[in-house]
Specification:
This protein is α+β, with helices and mostly antiparallel strands. It folds into four domains: about 70 residues, no CATH class; about 80 residues, GMP Synthetase, Chain A, domain 3, CATH 3.30.300; about 60 residues, no CATH class; about 40 residues. The chain is built from six helices and 13 strands. The strands form three sheets. A six-stranded mixed sheet has the order 5-2-1-4-3-6. A four-stranded antiparallel sheet has the order 10-11-12-13, with no helix packed on it. Strands 7-8-9 form a three-stranded mixed sheet, sandwiched between helices. The termini are far apart.
Length: about 270
């Protein structure tokens, strides 16, 4: 079972959500009204139309409510302006209540039925009194949503170790689970200070070349392992994934370069 869908961005550089066509002529970059977990909100069409399987989409498929008209666009722009002013007021209230929170983003739903604040914190925060104050001021339902440190950097932006803007604030929409295994597989020095980003988590770019290393090093012994060659034990000294060879050293100090093919059934021609 398939459906014609559009990939829509609701939060800037956020996860794409899929919505079904509604019969209107909709193209990439159009602003449309969709139903989100918080209520009716404005999103930007990134891709589509595209036919996809319902199982591939993975969530309940809702139709696009409508493409924004010129009047809708005025309402949306006013909501964006008011959300920025709400940010300033919320920051003042956070200081008044002395809460350990970093306010990141505020968003009005299109019909102003809810005002959502996104924040980060290193601890759990009791913001019940803050919510009461904000509800009294804005006369609408208030939602405070805590996000992790990776999402915090997505909102704030910054520069990576490479000197370029961080991936999460430019094009990376979803975060994958990254562990030291990914760095070790790529033969990187395990120094967390050098392989961590501005968010103090392991670099997202450790995933970009991981599949290549993982594929190339399958069946290849790791550094420090003992291998048998010419009826003698050799210890793996280093591995060169680009030259596709393994440097092994015997107890007597004899050094031999064994090709990857040696460990995969085809002995090849090792060099000394």
């Amino acid at each position: 079972m398939t459906a014609v869908v559009y990939a829509i961005e609701v939060s800037p550089k956020g996860k794409l959500s899929y919505y079904a066509e509604n019969g209107e002529d909709i193209k990439p970059n159009d602003l449309v009204l969709v139903m989100t977990e918080f209520g009716p909100d404005v999103g930007r069409v990134i891709r589509g139309p595209k036919e996809m399987g319902i199982e591939e989409i993975g969530t309940e498929l809702r139709p696009i409510i409508k493409k924004l008209t010129s009047e809708d666009l005025q309402i949306h722009q006013q909501n964006l302006k008011d959300a920025q002013e709400a940010m300033q007021i919320c920051r003042e209230k956070i200081r008044e209540h002395n809460l350990p929170m970093k306010l990141l983003h505020a968003r009005y739903m299109f019909d102003r039925s809810r005002l959502v604040f996104f924040f980060s914190s290193e601890t759990r925060v009791d913001f019940r009194e803050l919510v009461k104050d904000l509800a009294r001021i804005f006369k609408t339902r208030i939602e405070l949503r805590q996000v992790g440190v990776r999402d915090e950097l997505k909102f704030l932006g910054g520069l990576g170790l490479c000197g370029l803007p961080t991936c999460c604030s430019t094009f990376l929409r979803e975060f994958e689970s990254i562990t030291l295994k990914h760095a070790k597989c790529q033969q990187l020095m395990i120094n967390t200070a050098k392989i961590s980003g501005a968010c103090r988590r392991l670099l997202c770019c450790l995933m970009y070349e991981y599949d290549f290393y993982d594929q190339e090093l399958r069946g290849i012994p790791e550094e420090g392992e003992t291998v048998l060659y010419n009826q003698k034990n050799y210890k793996v000294q280093s591995i060169d994934v680009f030259k596709k060879n393994v440097l092994v050293v015997s107890e007597e100090g004899e050094m031999v370069y064994l090709p990857f093919s040696y460990f995969r059934g085809d002995e090849g021609a090792p060099t000394e």
